[in-house]
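Dear support,

We are seeing what looks like truncated structure output for some complexes. This example has two components. We would appreciate it if you could run it in full and send us the complete token output so we can diff it against ours.
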Amino acid sequence: MNLANLHLLLPEIFVLSMACVILLVDAYWRKCLHGIAYQLSQATLVGALLFTAFISVKEPVIALSGTFVWDSMAKVLKLFIYVITFTVFLYSRQYLIDRNLFKGEFFVLGLFAMAGMMVMVSAHHFLTLYLGLELLSLSLYAMVAMHRDSAQASEAAMKYFVLGALASGMLLYGMSIIYGLTGSLDLTTIAGVIAENKIEPMLLKFGLVFILIGLAFKLGAVPFHMWLPDVYQGAPTAVTLFISSAPKLAAFAMLMRLLVEGLGSLNVDWQGMLLFLSVLSMALGNIVAIAQTNVKRMLAYSTISHVGFLLLGMLTAKEAGYAAAMFYTMVYTLMSLGAFGLLLLLSHAGFEAENLNDFKGLNRRQPWYALIMMIVVLSMAGVPPMLGFWAKWSVLSQVVAGGFMWLAVLAVLFSVIGAFYYLRIIKLMYFDAPTDNAPVLKPSADIHWALTLNGMVILVLGVLPESLMTVCRVALS
Amino acid sequence: MVQFIFYLFATVLIFAAVRVITVKNPVHAALHLVLAFFSMAAIWLLLEAEFLAIALVLVYVGAVMVLFLFVVMMLDINVATVSEGFTRYLSSGFLVGLLILLEMVAVVGSHHFGLKAMPAPTPMAADAVVNTVLLGNVLYTEYVYPFELAAIILLVAMVAAIALVMRPKRWSKYVKPEDQVVVKAQDRLTMVKMTAEKES
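Here is the complete output from our reference environment:
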């Protein structure tokens, strides 16, 4: 047994042990220490952040018999995942208290889901990749179903579970085919065996197709997107916020590990498949979103279109393209945090802000939050100087550099179509009179400042995007 | 001989698997699933994976399916609503399934996976190290990380099941003396003024 580099796993070990501690503490002292699970979870995230930040290894290290890898991409993505999860828990607190969902289980399952993401991000083996994915998905299914008295949430959880199981089946079948052909589960070995060109390419493609279908299901790319709008709409908004943010980073890492590190020499094959998925996602996501009146559903379709953009960066099959895709994913999670965070803030006990009309006249009631929402929405639409513009720009410039001029034109075209429904929110907030006399909300100070910071990050990084871009470029080089 | 046993169990396996989804009675479906697991275990034995075969029988047939049967018997499943739409989607589903099957056979059929392309491994000598020892050697050493992760997934399943199903006991009525002593007469009885109503 080789435990030489066990210290690289300290963040994972810490998070998982703390999740078990929180489980016990919450079971026994739930009554006398109110909200202890929440505080401990946040402390865990801060602790994991410190552990990860202090591990400084220059070269990629593969530990534990090839099942675990530590490289700069894993480090950056993990740090980002902690920050995102911390913010998700913070935004969700008031919403959960109002709906009687403020229980230890929510935070424990959230931590377990995050541990799954960490495993996926630094997986170097089909087994760990799959187990990390299952750990993440199982926790998410339970979180969606947590609001037991809501029929909508149960239905969403059911759909998510069944389709998620189907996707896992596809992924596993593809992995088993590749394993059968190469005789290894280790990504480096697989890449080495494939590079020798001794295996019939048709069979490798066969395995690749199934792996890609599984990935597309998990990402929510068209035509494997059917679960996404229903789950986003049906789940409690706090859970939707979680699903739409941090797991996308893990999904990006999974794409990188499987397609680039494992099956990198098949790039000619997966480029075409990703092209197909990407164009369809951008088209359907942007066009169908126009017809939605439910904001959560609309943002779900917007997610689909953003996934299309992410895949655009991947399909260039170059390092700069991957860096652009990583940058896009990070920016997307920031914007999604902002949008769903505001939805959470506008909801209060007995009222769920989820229709477009709930935004009517927000400027007159709450000018500050209307401003933040405007920043987020403009960023999603890709209007300069917001961060979203630079994300789109970096992906598109790589697509053009890769020689897919027509694809870039198509992507811009769909973005322009998408701008319509983003701008409609701004119109509702600023130019329409409020329909209901909803009370002026007074969120607690930490949520207020977190949201403000969220908006400011999108604005300030939009003016100075180079720092985050450099981080992505360095992480992948 | 081995070939004959393989085809026998493979036929039983396919038959049982088809019956699991076509049979009307859910108890029968569960029993067919048991049969499917059992034939699968027999095929694994032919592959000299005796530990896995026995684990499949012990864990799935012995524990999981028995629990499953209990659940199925306790639930009042309405067969009519479950199988609703079965015939409606049968033709198109059958066509799509057949198409996928044909395509898959074309790729992974005997042309690429036949004995010529992938020769059968030589069987191990009778006195070689047994399956269980080999598994035990790597499970806690080489695969310790995936092993721990699998354990965590089981823990998540447990937490999720409890979080989704357990409800605090609301039906138990108990006395709270500290509330009783501060109660006032008007808390117990409220007088409501109402206008007299006449029968029309």
